[in-house]
Amino acid sequence: MKKALFGASLALACCGAYAQSSVTLYGLIDEAIRFQTSGAGNTVGVNEGAINGNRFGFKGTEDLGGGSHAIFQLESGFNIANGKFDQQGQLFGRFAWVGLQNDTYGSLTLGRQYGGIYNFYAFNFDPIGGGNINPTDWSLFLVGIRFDNTAEYDNKFGPVTLQLQHSFGGQPGSAVSGSTTTAYLMYNLTNGKIGIAGAESKDGNGHRLIVGSVGGKYAWGPVGLYLYGIDARRDAGFTVAATNSGGPLSNTNIISNATTQFGPQTAARTDVFVRAGVTYQFAPQWRFITSYAYDHANNVAPGKNGTIQTVYAIADYILSKRTDVYAEFDYSHLTGASITDPNGPLTFAGATNGYGASLSLRTLF
Question: Is residue 39 a contact partner of residue 349, using CB atoms and an 8 Å limit?
Answer without folding.
Answer: yes
